[in-house]
Design goal:
The complex is a heterodimer of chains A (117) and B (109).
Chain A: E1 4-7, E2 10-13, E3 19-25, E4 31-38, E5 42-51, E6 54-57, E7 64-70, E8 73-78, E9 87-94, E10 97-98, E11 101-102, E12 107-108, E13 112-116
Parallel strand pairs in A: 2-13
Antiparallel strand pairs in A: 1-3, 3-8, 4-5, 4-9, 5-6, 7-8, 9-12, 9-13, 10-11
Chain B: E1 4-6, E2 11-14, E3 19-25, E4 32-38, E5 45-50, E6 54-58, E7 61-66, E8 71-76, E9 85-93, E10 96-99, E11 103-108
Parallel strand pairs in B: 2-11
Antiparallel strand pairs in B: 1-3, 3-8, 4-5, 4-9, 6-7, 7-8, 9-10, 9-11
The chains are: A mainly beta (117), B mainly beta (109).
């Protein structure tokens, strides 16, 4: 999984409670992403980061916030979890250039299964 | 209409068959094209990536991009039971990759 870990790997929580998921990388890659994966929808981008303290919204950002205080860590927070946020969450990392070639290849972590009751 | 459409399958083939997986997209600005393999309860694993029209080959895998038709394909030759997985296409631009919903493939011994 390209030096990417996610924690926790599984979590069950109740509606209305805050939840924080952590992504940690050992690759020193600049770009980090949070996706959610749901049946029939594929992977959808929630937020991404292009450096420490630099983040931006993705396709499905409502109800989520992120923070990146260190290169290696990217946190995803659900301020008040809802049942519609039950999903599998994946973190991904990428580095833009390899041998001078601009690229957008992303490497994914193992995922976090979140169930909101 | 989704920006990336992928044949949902499921697809079941005998061992040794040639497999063809396809995606179409709607945004002509998309310039990065990738295929990922995802085993059950695992993260997606990058298989192939390309940034131009044409074919790219890597072992038993060939990725094909036709920008004029907005159509990409992944071919798997001599398919093996270990190829049984869900295959995701990813198409997009920097910081905005769009993923297909995935095609579930089963290769039977």
């Amino acid at each position: 999984d390209a030096g990417i870990t996610q924690s926790p790997r599984h979590k069950v929580t109740e509606t209305g409670t805050p939840v924080t998921l952590r992504c940690h990388q050992t690759e020193n890659h600049r770009y980090m992403y949070w996706y959610r994966q749901d049946p029939g929808h594929g992977l959808r981008l929630i937020h991404y980061s292009y450096g420490v303290k630099d983040t931006d919204k993705g396709e499905v950002s409502d109800g989520y916030s992120v923070s990146r205080s260190k290169t290696e860590d990217f946190l995803l927070t659900l301020e008040s979890a809802t049942s519609s946020q039950t999903s599998v969450y994946f973190c991904a990392i990428s580095e833009r250039t390899s041998g001078g070639l601009l690229q957008e290849t992303q490497y994914f972590g193992p995922g976090t299964r979140l169930l909101v009751l | 209409q989704k920006e990336v459409e992928q044949d949902p399958g499921p697809l079941s083939v005998p061992e040794g068959a040639i497999v063809s997986l396809n995606c179409t997209y709607s945004n002509s600005a998309f310039q990065y094209f990738m295929w990922y393999r995802q085993y059950s309860r695992k993260g997606p694993e990058l298989l192939m990536y390309t940034y131009s029209s044409g074919n790219k080959e890597d072992g038993r895998f060939t990725a094909q991009v036709d920008k004029s038709s907005k159509y990409i394909s992944l071919f798997i030759r001599d398919s093996q039971p270990s190829d049984s997985a869900t295959y995701l296409c990813a198409i997009g631009i920097l910081n905005d990759m769009r993923f297909g919903a995935g095609t579930r493939l089963t290769v039977k011994p």
